[in-house]
């Protein structure tokens, strides 16, 4: 039987964990912005603390140093893919083309949410330790699996015409990442929704089997 003291302890621990999550999020978001602007090598812990609005000592409570912060920023994006993409695919139902469409849209929306951090995966990965780079490679393969599976299901069903399903999947991933990498350009004329719709239409038009196009007119137009 739980007591009032147990309940109080549980509530205190929950509040402490929630506070830690907020502070960690604050530090990671600030690090992504700052490292994108200046490069990880030029960023000091003092500058990071100022950007995040916290003390240097608080950063060291969560991270062992700048390298750990950089790794955590990149891993944070990959964990978001791992959480959001399978959920979007599952919600799309059984149709393989719509599952593929949902996966691509989910990738784009994660990229938009973590735009500064996504840029760092390209610009700063070489600054990581060998162990850190291997961790990132493993997570990238793991988190791209839902998209690769969706493409393979489409090919098996005859709805997509391609001899290179892996290449199709990674082309779609690059299109998603381009929203971050070239946001300075695309963001001037396109909303995220318009970008997703236009890129999805261009990609599917090239590979969807002609006899199935009328079923997916809403995705192709």
From TrEMBL:
Residues 21-81 form the HTH tetR-type domain. The keyword Transcription applies. Transmembrane segments: none annotated. This is TetR family transcriptional regulator. It comes from Gordonia crocea. It holds the Pfam family TetR_N. One of its GO terms (molecular function) is DNA-binding transcription factor activity. The keyword Transcription applies. Residues 44-63 bind DNA. InterPro entries: DNA-bd_HTH_TetR-type_CS, Homeodomain-like_sf, HTH-type_TetR-like_transc_reg, HTH_TetR, KstR2_TetR_C, Tet_transcr_reg_TetR-rel_C_sf. Keywords: DNA-binding, Transcription, Transcription regulation. Gene3D superfamilies: Homeodomain-like (1.10.10.60), Tetracycline Repressor, domain 2 (1.10.357.10). It comes from the Bacteria.
